[in-house]
């Protein structure tokens, strides 16, 4: 499994390899590096065993272990991998910068690159970190990175802060507005479906209504400025909306009940794989001809 190299103003992060063993053992040679850990990695054998564990990583693609290089020298390590300590296999960030290089903003710079990769290329909704209660420098790094402190607990054998960073809002949809020929019909179909998916009514006025979930809202409006009374999704413009559904069972359930709320199935002969073998989705069309795709967010193995 190959990790992409990540480049910052002063650093290059590249996938940890066997050839980095001695350099990583050296990074951890100062006992200060292990001050907040259960193991003392200033012992070369312990550090080498830690390198083994990192090299054995077999988790999701795009996550894993990087060495942090400055001017071609390995000065630290960073990781993003499913947490061993937090439930649900959530992605956990870790960063380590050798003592002679500390205090120059390098851990913050390296960890920011890993966060950008996790939120950008991997599309993770959140990244977690566990920082020892007394590790003031690491807590500062996490604060610089925008992590929220959401509590504490015993992790890795001692009291740790539990921190989370959420994917940035920058560039995400703010709202989606659909012009509809019949507001009542749109409310019957969209209102039901969005309500089932956890959206709640947000705004209402004579010609329209909106529903909000998280920071995004969907508007349906029977605008007086409509230039036609029918929607034709094969014309240029929006073809369909695709919404995430937590599980395959919930996609099945919604698809089964949608008919009572103004939706009819599309591509029913190929349900649930009309979008491909690895894609589990229901395609529905309402009376106005709008298409919605309900996509199971869970992987093939289930939740
Ligand atoms: C924690 C660690 C990654 C920080 O690396 P770094 O490159 O020095 O981090 P940065 O320079 O980006 O930021 C460190 C911040 O902590 C501050 N700091 C450093 N030592 C501190 C201390 N003892 N008390 C309070 N703040 C301290 C720095 O001033 C800096 O804050 P500032 O930018 O507001 O001035 C590094 O010391 C390390 O690898 N420690 C051992 C491993 C470890 O604990 N990793 C974290 C596991 S969660």
Bound molecules: coenzyme A
CATH topology of the largest domain: Aminopeptidase
Structural class: alpha+beta
Q: Averaging pLDDT over every residue, what do you get? A: 96
Strand content: 25-35%
Number of helices: 6
Order of helices and strands: EEHHEEEHEHEEEHEEEEHEEE
What Rg is obtained from the alpha carbons, in whole angstroms?
25 Å
Helix content: 10-25%
Q: Sheet bearing the most strands, described?
A: 5 strands, antiparallel
CATH superfamily of the largest domain: Gcn5-related N-acetyltransferase (GNAT)
InterPro entries: Acyl_CoA_acyltransferase (IPR016181), Glyas_Bleomycin-R_OHBP_Dase (IPR029068), GNAT_dom (IPR000182), N-acetyltransferase (IPR051531), VOC_core (IPR037523)
Protein name: GNAT family N-acetyltransferase
Pfam family, one: Acetyltransf_3
Summary, kept brief:
By secondary structure, this protein is α+β, with helices and mostly antiparallel strands. The chain is 22% helix and 33% strand.
């Amino acid at each position: 499994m190959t990790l992409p190299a990540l480049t910052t103003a002063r650093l290059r992060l590249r996938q940890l390899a066997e050839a980095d063993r001695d350099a990583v053992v050296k990074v951890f040679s100062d006992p200060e590096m292990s001050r907040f850990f259960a193991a003392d990695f200033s012992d070369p054998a312990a550090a080498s065993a830690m390198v083994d564990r990192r090299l054995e990583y077999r988790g999701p693609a795009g996550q894993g272990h990087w060495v942090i290089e400055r001017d071609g020298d390995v000065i630290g390590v960073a990781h993003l991998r499913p947490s061993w300590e937090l439930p649900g296999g959530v992605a956990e960030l870790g960063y380590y910068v050798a003592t002679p290089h500390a205090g120059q903003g390098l851990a913050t710079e390296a960890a920011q690159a890993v966060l950008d990769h996790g939120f950008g290329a991997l599309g993770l909704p959140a990244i977690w970190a566990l920082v020892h209660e007394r590790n003031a420098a690491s807590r500062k790094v996490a604060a610089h990175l925008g992590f929220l402190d959401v509590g504490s607990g015993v992790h890795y054998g001692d009291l740790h802060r539990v921190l989370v960073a959420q994917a940035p809002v920058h560039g995400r949809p703010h709202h989606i507005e659909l012009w509809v020929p019949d507001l009542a019909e749109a409310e019957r179909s969209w209102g039901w479906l969005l309500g089932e998916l956890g959206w709640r009514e947000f705004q209402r006025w004579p010609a329209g209504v909106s529903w909000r979930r998280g920071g995004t809202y969907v508007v349906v409006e029977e605008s007086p400025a409509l230039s036609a009374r029918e929607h034709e999704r094969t014309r240029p413009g929006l073809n369909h909306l695709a919404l995430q559904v937590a599980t395959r069972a919930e996609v099945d359930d919604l698809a089964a009940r949608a008919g009572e709320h103004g939706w009819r199935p599309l591509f029913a002969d190929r349900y649930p794989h009309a979008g491909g073998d690895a894609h589990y989705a229901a395609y529905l069309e309402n009376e106005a001809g709008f298409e919605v795709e309900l996509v199971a967010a869970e992987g093939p193995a289930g939740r």
